[in-house]
Design goal:
By secondary structure, this protein is of the alpha/beta class. The protein has 15 helices and 26 strands. One of its GO terms (molecular function) is ligase activity.
């Protein structure tokens, strides 16, 4: 009897490398992890990582989490996040990734929208008590049954996963490894509001393949991932790229430039994956002398409309690949040429690598009738972005849409026919990757009191930055805290002169 073809999962990819080279180095923690979380940095082989994954997976099963239930994760860019994601998949769970910038209001909304049964967090990250945040959010999410944490001084009622890693693995369960099964849920903000975006394994792998093939990442490479992992792009650029290459994944919790360079040199990293603006800053000086082991740089653009006007890449020994990110909808990459300038991106199907004839189709880029950019392909979750049913027409079937409208304004360049992305989605702001509706900004400004000023100014590094008069800063922090927002967002507050 013929067995049906089954596409691989992330855990399948991990176990393939585990079988081939169990003692090879798999994971490397940030060198400054002790400052970030209080843990000492870890260095793990594939065999050691597999033992840890098995222990965490068994604990999730023994805790009573049913297969296909949702487990939420709010963790920094450390080894714990990789182990937890792979352990959840091995236990047959779906991972919901929660950005570190989120606080009580967003956490509670996400947990309730996804009916999450558990949440995993770190005791503290950069001095902020994420364990307390998770406990308070879990108290208002009726579906939560378990709260897990890494680190010391966990609140009462939170189970320690460090203790789980310190003992032998327990009972596991058989899980069918099929890439078509749900793997993750990320969260986006669109004109229609807050939106959970589910994805299967093959969609995550497709995103990783689009990046790794376009950037020509070699098998067995040591990859430095310095991009926040709590999104589709974050998981695809770190976890998926690492598992596809079968090499070593070094992690950097964003951002300390000196520590990042020290890590790249200490671990002899060949690939750097980071926000594009950070990568361009690194190339301002003599990158070849400072980081001689780098052969590839992948720059991720949260604001893809800024790519065309970006500076030239001046480090020919490590070519730059621009990756255009469109929230949680999808992405595509384009490797720069010898002149270091961004290459034109043409509409229609695009392969990976882009310039190689006969390469596999990674996706398709199109202009919608609204003059916005549309995406389709294996990594694009079309159903999650389906337009809302018109009021009063609930019994009328709507024509199916086979693409996602990203909302980014775009046009065709007449001489070249290339796509020009001109503006981000209307009504949406972004601060450091945190997206919110501009209407929310008006609500925050109202809370500042009469005569106060709060606005969003364009910023090349983070998309936008929140700005207010210096005398409003203290009240702004207080107001945003009352609204349940992370104080890291308020670090962007400056007066118009740029003074703190």
């Amino acid at each position: 009897m013929n067995q049906p073809a089954v596409s691989p999962t992330l855990d399948t990819l991990f176990q393939r490398t585990l079988m081939r080279q169990p003692h090879a180095t798999a994971l490397l923690d940030p060198l400054n992890k002790a400052r970030i979380t209080g843990h000492q940095p870890r260095r793990m082989s594939y065999a050691e990582a597999d033992t840890a994954i098995e222990a965490l997976s068994a604990h999730f099963v023994e805790s009573g989490l049913p297969a296909n239930s949702v487990i939420a994760i709010q963790l920094p860019n450390t080894v714990e996040y990789v182990l937890t994601v792979l352990a959840a998949h091995r236990a047959g769970l779906v991972v919901a990734v929660l950005p570190l910038l989120w606080r009580h209001a967003e956490l509670t909304a996400a947990l309730n929208r996804t009916a999450a049964r558990a949440i995993v967090t770190m005791s503290t990250v950069d001095g902020v008590s994420y364990a307390d945040l998770a406990m308070h959010a879990a108290a208002e999410a009726f579906s939560i049954r378990h709260v897990y944490g890494f680190g010391s001084d966990l609140p009462e009622g939170m189970a320690s996963l460090d203790d789980v890693l310190a003992r032998p693995p327990g009972t596991t369960r058989a899980v069918i490894q099929d890439g078509r099964k749900a793997a993750m849920i990320s969260f986006d903000v669109t004109a229609e509001g807050f939106r959970p975006v589910p994805r299967p394994h093959f969609s995550l792998i497709a995103g990783g393949l689009a990046m790794s093939l376009e950037a020509d990442i070699k098998q067995g490479a040591t990859v430095m991932a310095a991009f926040t992992p709590m999104s589709f792009a974050g998981l695809a650029s770190s976890l998926a790229v690492w598992l596809l290459s079968g090499g070593t994944l070094a992690l950097h919790h964003p951002f300390e430039n000196d520590v990042l360079e020290q890590q790249i040199n200490a671990h002899e990293c060949e690939v750097l994956i980071a926000p594009a603006q950070l990568a361009l800053r690194l190339s301002d000086a003599d990158l070849a002398a400072r980081l001689p082991t780098l052969h590839n740089v992948v720059g991720l653009w949260r604001a893809p409309e800024q790519v065309a006007a970006s500076d030239a890449w001046i480090a020919p020994h490590a070519p730059l690949t621009d990756v255009y990110l469109f929230g949680e909808a999808g992405l595509f990459g384009a490797r720069r040429g010898e002149d270091g300038m961004p290459v034109p991106v043409m509409p229609g199907p695009h392969g990976a690598p882009r310039e190689q004839s006969g390469s596999s189709i990674a996706g398709e880029i199109l202009l919608t009738p609204r003059g916005t950019l549309g995406l389709r392909g294996p990594m694009v979750p079309i159903a999650a972005y389906a337009p809302p049913q018109p009021v009063g027409e609930t019994l009328t079937a709507q024509p199916p849409r086979d693409y996602v409208d990203t909302g980014y304004a775009a046009r065709l360049d007449r001489p070249s026919g290339a796509i020009c992305i001109t503006a981000p989605p209307s009504g949406i702001m972004a601060v450091g990757g945190y997206r919110f509706l501009s209407n929310d900004l008006q609500e925050w400004a109202r809370r500042l009191g009469q005569g106060a000023l709060l606005t969003a100014l364009p910023d090349r590094l983070s998309g936008h930055r929140l700005a207010g008069r210096a005398q409003d800063n203290a009240r702004a922090r207080e107001a945003l805290s009352e609204l349940g927002l992370n104080p890291l967002m308020v670090e962007a507050f400056r007066d118009r002169s740029g003074a703190a």
